[in-house]
Amino acid sequence: MLVRGDSGxxxxxxxxxxxxLGFLAKAGSLFDENVVEAVRxxxxxxxxxxxxxxxxxxxxxxxxxxxxLGDRLIxxxxxxxxxxxxxxxxxxxxxxxxxxxxADGIFGPKSALALKEFQRSVGxxxxxxxxxxxxxxxxxxxxxxxxGPATALREDALRxxxxxSLLEKVIVVDPSWGGANPGHSFGAITESEFTFDLxxxxxxxxxxxxxxxxxxxxxxxxxxxxxxIDFANQVSADLVISLHCDNYPNERAEGVASYYFxxxxxxxxxxxxxxxxxxxxxxxxxxxxxLNCRTHAKSWDLLRLTKSPTVRIDIGYLSNPSDxxxxxDPSFREIVAEALVVAIQRLYLDxxxxxxxxxxxxxxxxxxxxxx
Length: 372
Hints:
Aminopeptidase; Muramoyl-pentapeptide Carboxypeptidase, domain 1; two-stranded antiparallel ribbon; alpha/beta
């Protein structure tokens, strides 16, 4: 971790990289206010949490940002290669109709298979390695797919194929452990207690509607983030919902916010993730009257590395007295649980069958025969 006031060779390396990417006018060996602002700008552009401090995720983003397509040979490695060059390759392949999944900037087996198919289609050896010859072939060809991003079309088609019923859908509920200090309390409740109780209430309601539900942790133990990501991928989840609440030094911060995978600078996003984040955000805000802090595209690992549409929802601020009082109330948690169930159902309904935000009830789903 590098923070304001640090100095030395590591800071010089950091500022040199920030300068080369255009975030900083001049490199130096002191982490001063100019470097703080440059790091914040980098974090904002990469969909990271904006802190102005350089942690491991920020360093990883800085490393990824320096690569351009053609700078290096792209191939399957362990760990998998990451970078803007990989994202560019994925977007070009998607634009020509080759299925890489989503353009997440990580060169995995699906991207390698799509690259092999492209290479064979243009008469190259299908070795799944992107070197100079493949880059030239990519540059020469024009885009052949129109009418919207291929990932959006595939995600929407998959959602439609699964139909409106929640029966047998697989949903993973991921209640936050509360960071490095899960027992830290603002008054009478901790984030860990709140999110696990809400996850339990939500899971019970979903199970009654025929959903296969998995909770990623127990009341007193939580796997690492990478283990939770692996678990969600192994069970082939249709949707992952990560539950959190926030805190802030200023107790006036309040409200509910939701996050989905995306990078506005690169023009990539999870279409289904964005839709569910919007539905959940609207339902919770309408039913609880909490301040609507909107939905946001982020490239956090949980959102980026989980293969299925994944949404993080921050429900209130424990540091805000009003939000904290609501979060501590069991009846409030029941309202939020119902809001999430209805948002999930609305995700799978077509436009004609959808209902006005804040009006649909679980009893309506049963009467409509959604549970069969």
